[in-house]
Amino acid sequence: MTETSEQETRYKSPLHQRRAGVILHPTSLPGKCAQGDLGPDACRFADFLNDCGISVWQMLPVGPTHEDRSPYMSLSVDAGNPGLISLELLHQWGWLGEKQLNGSAGPAKKKRCIIEAYQGFLRQNDPEQLQALQQFVAENADWLENYALFTVLRHHFQRLTWNQWPEPYRHREAATIAKAKQQFRSGIDEVCFEQFVFYRQWALLKQYANERQIQMVGDMPIFVAHDSAEVWQHQEYFDLHPDGSPNTVAGVPPDYFSRTGQRWGNPLYRWDRMADDHFKWWIDRFRVALTLYDAVRVDHFRGFEAFWEIDAKEDTAMNGRWVKAPGDALFSILQQSLGELPIIVEDLGTITPDVHALREKFGWPGMKILQFAFDGSEDNPYLPHNHVRKCVVYTGTHDNDTTLSWYEELPDHIRENIIEYLNHPGEPMPWALVECAFRSVADWAIVPMQDLLALGKGHRMNTPGVTENNWRWRFQWDQLPAHLADKVRGMVIQFERDVQS
Question: How far apart, in Å, do the first and last CA atoms of the chain sit?
């Protein structure tokens, strides 16, 4: 990322070409470590997508996670997850010994290996590499120094949330922060190196994918975790009590996923303060995201028109209220600053005409989920005959069960209605729904990797409203049928989603 004026940084949307895509978070990739990473298996996956004719790789947020591994409650909106760093690449670069590649590497071991790689990097004393690190730190100073200090202090205070730290640290008293930067300098430098490595490995993977005409699509949660570097740094932008605890929190009312709604617990924004600063925080956030991705799915877009406000003392999301948000003003300033934004709008759930109007004003595609389509209503917007070109159709997302498991658990009469609607396809589930997605008039059609592998119960990525056993799904290369790529490419070509021809 380079320091440019807001007017000089312009982005062009890749969303206006008919494409096919796959959802797979990098943690779900195969590999020797405890989770997938940005190394050789990620490039191999890009090759697989290329063989399939797939030209969109969508993933979840890639920020550093808390202990529950949820990518939607990150410790930072700008930093990369160090768990995604490839030790194999560190070894190839000559910074890490071969013995460190033996065995699986969980978070603690990976952290030790990255520190060892930093020592190897310093011993190498390569002027070009040292300059590259210094340049990265300088260009990302707006967020990197604060994130590094936050990370070191969080470790020092035994992972307590920042508002439980001693008061001078909690309130970021200038003298205390200056002293901490000196006291913890070596740890701060290690975290900066860690982010340098993540961004370098990410850039190499993105280049590899882009060279194969694959668009990298990220995910931007509307809200941020309370225990995050950004809330600690910019407490004035969040609805907090004087002690730093949330006054109100985010969520959604009762819906398809939960009878009591979802109480996410993120602190809500003080939109008035953000507007006073011309939404600089959001401009910076989008600029960083667009260095990582070719396009961004904006999660919970309806919260930019109105958000569900819950008193932090409430245990569920049932007793909340809708509060207007300044989405129109925000997105107008973002487009003035950054140009045409390549955004996919997550417009699921309780959607009002005002939300649709906000999306349509800026010309962004919404989402259509086929698993939501078959409730018996002819005007269901997710039914394929109600699709429009400017949208992205999915069989399901990371929050849905796999299509095969979903289908198998439906009542018999609904399964029969689906098969009749799909005109009795020759293919079994999930391929019947994958073909339905690819056949849609929607410009983009995206399916989870689990559906390409025809996986059933026990292979979903996340169950909304449930905190245990999420975000852990992985596939293995031996799960890929021999002719899978040929089958997918045939569908991509048949339904004119092949950008390589």
Answer: 32
Q: Is 236 a catalytic residue?
A: no
Residues 6+ apart with CB under 8 A from 73: 65, 66, 225, 264, 266
Is 299 in the active site? Answer: yes
Which residues constitute the domain of residue 241? 19-364+471-494
- For 139-161, what is each residue's pLDDT tens digit? 999 999 999 999 999 999 999 99
Q: Which is the catalytic residue, given 41, 88, 294, 299?
A: 299
- Identify whether 457 is part of a domain: no
Same domain, 328 and 444: no
- The answer on 201 and 109 residing in a single domain is yes
Distance (Å, rounded) from C-alpha 484 to C-alpha 431?
Answer: 11
Q: Are residues 139 and 250 in the same domain?
A: yes
Q: How many beta carbons lie within 10 A of that of residue 247, not counting itself?
A: 16
How far, in Å, CA of 308 to CA of 351, rounded?
12
Q: Give 397-424 pLDDT, tens digit per residue.
A: 999 999 999 999 999 999 999 999 999 9
Q: Which of 346, 401, 443, 498 is catalytic?
A: 346
- Is-catalytic flag, 346? yes
CA 461, CA 482: separation in Å to the nearest integer? Answer: 24
Q: Are residues 333 and 381 in the same domain?
A: no
Q: Which residue among the candidates 142, 309, 354, 399 is catalytic per the annotation?
A: 399
Length reported for the chain: 501
